[in-house]
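Q: Fold this one first, please.
A: Sequence and structure below.
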Amino acid sequence: MTAGASFFSKERIVAGPGFNRWLVPPAALAIHLCIGMAYGFSVFWLPLSKSLGITHSIACTPDSGIFQAMFTTSCDWKVSALSVTFEIFIAVLGISAALWGGWLEHAGPRKAGAIAAACWGGGMFLGGIGAMMHQLWLIWLGCGVIGGVGQGLGYISPVSTLIKWFPDRRGMATGMAIMGYGGGASIGAPLAVMLMKHFSSATSVGVAQTLMVMGCIYFFAMMMGAIGYRIPPNGWKPEGWNPPSPEASKAMVTHKHVHLDKAWKTRQFWLIWAVLCLNVTAGIGVLSMASPMLQEVFGGKLVGLQVSFNDLTPDQKVQIAAVAAGFAGLLSLFNSLGRFFWASISDWIGRKNTYFTFFILGMVLYASAPSLGHTGSVALFVLAFCVILTMYGGGFSTVPAYLADMFGTQMVGAIHGRLLTAWSTAGIAGPVLINYVREFQLSHGVQRADAYDITMYILVGLLLLGLVSNALIRPVETHHHMTDEELEAERKVSHDVAAEDHVIAAVQAKDITLPVILAWLAVGIPFIWGVSQTLIKASVLFR
């Protein structure tokens, strides 16, 4: 350890003798389960749209635009204006991860995680102040921009560290952490509903107080995760494990390293960028419209009535909305579980074959969705999209290991950060695509139950492009690899510690210690509670 190194510096978190590597995934999960609330933010939109009227929305004048909405204190916001917050923090997530991914490799995961905690927790607190003052621009700034920076840094903070701790199971390790992002809403959304109910009154819908309280909770939980981060010294490997030789490896796994400055200029980077973007565009488009899609496709069949959506009474629409909410929750659950499942599978069949599976199986399921909808098979329709969402989530968790295979582990966190601009692109393109096609269909007289058919076939086309992009990926040319001198120079800049200077005797997975049990319980209990809440809501689909 360097003399005078700060508590958050990279030199202070090199693991010591006897450290158990299984303490690192819970630290990563603590951060990802918090920032994963991004997927659950929609629970705030309807209450916020009545923050002045309390029981009803106070409409603005017809000529009011988005600029007036940012500053008005005399009328309520529209849901469409509030939902821009989601688009902002997803866009900022990708941008901040791309901008500061290289800095993270040098500063270390603890410092990045602490800043992420301050930005996400503090951003939500500031958003709560914005809700209290009825200033939309403050919500956008707090939850959207500042929170988005926290999202980006928090998301990529554990990637490089986990891959280095688990060289024998790269996919599984990153899958464990990134699973938390997919499952964060299953904890945060019901918690937010409970808090809003507690804080609501005759003069408040309870959103402002809820955002502030959750901001404090998330700050504390994420700081605990950041403090729990440890990194292995260079050259460390699990006891008894030796990396396979290039000749013996069936996957396209390099044993060299590519610098960030070169990696993002290679053909392989942009092909993987396209693979992730196309997979996410298809999945996030469906996820954004899950609830209205199920309601409009099946209508009264969701509650045992043989009537279309347009013929339902207001009370019946409330009933099917509850069923559709269960569908959305179930998709989120499968999104989370798929992140761990598919990333773990990729350790066995390789990353390229895993993405081949995503695209081929995805095309079959998307193409069959219209037929399943027309035949009225709710269970099969739901099952098809649950499988689709596992592959959507699996795309996120498999890609860090894919990048490590292609570019090495030295700067994989920074490369992953830059690749996440694909997510920002898809986060806008997917919902816009599915909404535009739906509106176009409806405006041309297509029935609501049929308005998603063309969309599904368009998504099949996107997946076909992804399949082709994946097929074109080849190992990185050797002239892109860092020389031994360049690698050593980069490690000095990154304050990496060599194994011979700081030898550790890591406890293996079979050694379950009390600290490991407590760490996993700390993240496992909230996650299991969130899953149980999701399953309770989703049970209405199968009554």
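Q: Good. Now the second chain.
A: Here it is, same layout.
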Amino acid sequence: MHATRGATARQEARSANLVQPDLERVAMPRDESFKVWSHGYPFRTVRWHFHPEYEIHLITATTGKYFVGDYIGNFAPGNLVMAGPNLPHNWVSNVPPGSRVDERGLVLQFSEDFIGRAAMAFPELKRVENLLDAARWGMLFAEKTAAAAEPVMREMIGAQGIRRITLFITLLDLLLQSTAPVKLASAAYRADPAPDAGTRIDHVLAYIGKNLSLALRETELAELSGQSVSAFSRYFRRHTGVPFVQYVNRLRINLACQLLMTGELSVTDICYQVGFNNLSNFNRQFLLLKAMSPSRWRAYQQLNAASATESPDAAHAPQAFG
């Protein structure tokens, strides 16, 4: 019964409107390799959305909340983020209703195909591969990097010919030189078990994912993998990077976030739906991983969703977003 309930919860989370970001269709100029532009606020792309292109996004005005995958944070001018393909994101500014901001940010977008072909033509660009891979979870760069990137991005908007390419390479080099950029979305948000198919641990990970609402004990899963508890603990941590209990809690909190976005279940119901035995432990684990309470996380997601109605082009959204 619990397994069925957990599967139903995941299905409900996937089908909820709030967890379905809009697809932004990036119109890449035919005679250009990438798109660089600025926009104000409100604007049609200020909504929970994604696109197949990489995006480098620099906030130049306003403060507020930003959302990247399952990450929620505060932003201010100098917020420089790189998001990978199909990673949902949104920035919601704290501005009085009805007011407008002429320029809120600078945006650079480029496709995987473009950067892949560029790396094949110029072996020196191979160094960018690690940066691109990390961007699939979203990356926040230091203020010093943002300050250096702003004039480069501004010049790119009006640049033509080879100068555009020069500036693009300069910007990538700035990001590569940045000190300890912060990964934003959790590992569970983009987890893909495919590379581990066929391993002993993969069967365990699949079992965990399908049975989050059950009482999951390390001793039983060690038996499932054909190992002693101590050997299983070492192997599990080496494979996932975290202890067993921490891994399970992360998955449960990740599922809880999806359910919180539906707005259909209470926090208490969600607590038990995702496999926690008591509300206090659920709240404690949620605060530990998300730095806020479940109710506040839900409130911010409602703010995120409501931003779509503030867009001046909201009436044309079906045409702008597929």
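Q: Anything worth noting on the second one?
A: The two ends are 38 Å apart (CA to CA).
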